[in-house]
Amino acid sequence: MEAKPKRRIVTENGDTGEDLVLATLIGNGDDVGPLVRHAFEMGRPEPLVHQLKNVARKKEAEIEDLCKTHYEEFIVAVDELRGVLVDAEELKSDLATDNFRLQEVGSALLVKLEELLESYAVKKNVTEAIKMSKICVQALELCVKCNSYVSEGQFYHALKTMDLIERNYLKIIPLKVLKLAIERRIPVIKSHIEKKVCSQFTEWLAHIRSSSKSIGQTAIGLIASARQREEEMLERQRKAEEQNTGGLGELAYTLDVEDSEQDSVLKFDLTPLYRAYHIHTILGVPERFRDYYYSNRQLQLDSDLEISYGQPFVESYQTFLAQIAGYFIVEDRVIRTAGDFLLADQVETMWETAIAKIVLVLENQFARMDSPTHLLLVKDYVTLLGATLRQYGYEVGPVLDALDKSRDKYHELLLEECRKQIVTAISEDSYQQMVIRKEADYENNVLSFNLQTSEIMPAFTYIAPFSSMVPDVCRIIRSYIKGSVDYLSYGVNTNFFSVLRKYLDKILIDVLNEVILETINNNSIGVAQAMQIAANISFLEKACDYFLRHAAQLCGIPSRSVEKPQASLAAKVVLKTSRDEAYHALLNVVNTKLDEFMKLPENINWITEEMPQGPHEYMNEVVIYLETVMSTAQQILPTDALYKVGVGAIEHISNSIVSTFLSDSIKRFNANAVSAINHDLRVIENFADERYHSTGLDEVYKEGSFRSYLVEVRQLINLLSSSQPENFMNPVIRERNYNTLDYKKVATICDKFKDSPDGIFGSLANRNTKLTAKKKSMDMLKKRLKEFN
User: Fold this and answer.
1) pLDDT: is 566 or 685 the higher one?
2) Which of 90, 100, 171, 322 is 20 to 30 A (C-alpha) from 337?
3) pTM over 0.90
C-alpha cells in the first residue's frame, strides 16, 4: 500500500529512466547479476556504479522519511517494553523460588525413578532371554523330531520338518553357535536322506525287474485266455450257422469278466517310486532323480534284451518276451500315474530300442529254426506279446512285419514235414479198397472229407472205392491248413484267405501231385496199383472242395463265397491232369501185359497149311485178363475211367494186330493165318460187346461202343479174307467197308500176303497152275497200290 507513493516520489524527483529501472529491480528483489555482468562485459562499469549509488541514496532518503513518519509510535513501544522488563524480573524471581522447592522435593523421586528404570531394564532383558530360549528350545525340539523321523525312515516328514526349521526358525535363532550348527547339519541330513532313498529305490528297481517276467506272463496269459475264448466263440458261431441257431450271448459275458479279471490281477507296487520322486522334488532335484531312473531302467532294458546262447531259443523265448512285456507294462503304469515324472518321448525311445532288438532276434532265430512247430510256438507267443502291448498303446507293427517275413520260411518247413508224411502215407499204402466196419470210422474217413458217393448211410461192412491213402492224405492236408491258419492268424493281414489259398495250392500241386506222379511213373507199378491210384486221385480231386471250404471256415470266410466254380483251387485242375496221367499209366501197364499175352509173331503160325478151327490159346488168357481188369475197374473207377480203360485195351489189341502185320519180323502170311486171327478177333469183339452192355456203358456212350475201336483190324481182316480185295480201290466200296485203312499200310501188308508157298519145289509144281480169282484180285490190288503210291 505504501510502495506506490514511494515509487511516485522517485519519479517526481526527476530520476532518469535507467535509475528507475534499476530501482524497480532492486525493489522487487530481482537478480541484478545479469546487469552487472553485462556492464563488465561491455567494459563500462562506471555508469552502473554511479546508478547503484544513486539508488542507495534514494533508499536512504526513503528510510529516513519512514522513521520520521512513525517516530511517536516507536517511543510508545519503547515505554511499554520497559514495563514488560520489570514484570519479567519479578516473574524470574518467583520461578527461582519455585524451582528451589521443586528440587528439594524431586531429589527423592529421582532416586526411585532411577531404581524403577533399572528394574524395567532387567525385566526387558529377562523377557528377551526367555523369548530367545523358547525359540532355541522349539528349534531343538524340531531337530530332535527330524532325527527321529530320519531314524524311523519317515523321510518325507523329516524333510518337511527341516523345511519348517529353515523357513521359520533358522533366521530368528538368537544363538549364533546353535544357528551355525543347524545350518551345517541340514545339508548333511538331506544328503543322507537322498542316499537312503536312492538305496531303497535301487532295491525297488531290482525287485520290479525280477517281477517283470511274472507281470508279463500274467498279462500275456490273460490275452491268451481271451483269444482262446474268442476262438471257441467263433467255433460255436460256425456250428450255430450250420444249424441255423445263435449262440453269442454267453461270449459277451465271458469277455466282460476278462476285463475285470485283468484289472484285478495286474497289480504291482509303485509306491517306492512315487515316494522317491516326491522326496527328490522336495529336495529340489527332481531332474536328477528322473535321469537316475531313466538311465537305470535303460540299463535294465539293455540287459533284458540280451538273449542267452547257452540255452536253445525255443526254451527261453517265453521268458525273454515276457520280461520285455512286463518291463513296458510297468513303464506304461509309471507314465500314467506318476504325473510328469516320465516323458512319453522317453518311453517311445526305449520301445523303439526294444522293438528293433526283438525284430533282430526273431529274424536271426527264425533263420536257424528247422522245425515248423518251434517256429509256430514262437510266432504265437510273439503275437500274444503284440496284442498285450498294443492294449497299452505301443506300436507293434514292426514285430508283426518280422513274423510276416518269416511266413515263407515257416511254410517251407511245414511243407517239407507234410511231404515226408505224404510220401510215407502213399508208399505204405496197400492200394486196396478201404474196408470200413464202423459208422464212426465212416464218419472219420469219409464224411469228414466229403468223400461219400451217396448221401445215404451205407450198410457196414462198407468197402470204400478208395484206399487208406486218401483219408490219410486228407488228414495231412487238413493239418497243413490248420498249421497255416495258425501262423497267418493275428498277423499283419487280417484277411489272409488269399494267402492261405496260395499255400494250399502249393502243397497240393508241388507236394501231393508230385509224389503221386513219381509213384505213377515208377516202373514197378502194377495194374491194381495204377487203377487204385487213379481212383484215389479222383477222390483227392473231390476233396479239394472240402479243403477250400475248410480253409475258408477257419478264416471266417462264408462258405458260399468259395462254392462258386470260378473259386475252386488250381490244384483241382492239376490233379485232374494227374488223374489222366494215372489212366495213361494204367493203360500202359494193361497194354504191356496184353503184349506179353499177345506175342503174335511167336504164338501164330503165319504160313500154316491147316485151316484153323478156332481161336488161339493165348486169346483165352487175354480175355481172362481183360475180364479181371474190367471187373476191378468197374468196382473202383468212375464210369468215364472205366470206359477209357476198356477203350484203351480194345484199341491196343486192334493196333497190336495191325502192327504185327506191318512188323518186319513177319515176312509173309497166308489165308489160314488170316482166318486164325479172324477167330481171335471175334472173341475180342464178343467180349467187347458183352462188357459194353453189362457195365451199362451203352447207356452213357451210345455212339462209341468198344467194338467200334476194333474197326481197323476188322476191316483189314475182312479185306484180306475178301474174294475180291481189289474192290478196296473202288472209292464207294472203300468208303463203305474200308474207310479206316491206310493205303500205305494196306500196300505193305498185301505185299506180305502169299497164299501159296514160295519154296523151289512148290514153285515148280504150281507154275502151271491156274491162278484163282482171289489171287488175281489180290495181285491186281497190289499192282494198283504200287501205282497209287
Assistant:
1) 685
2) 322
3) no
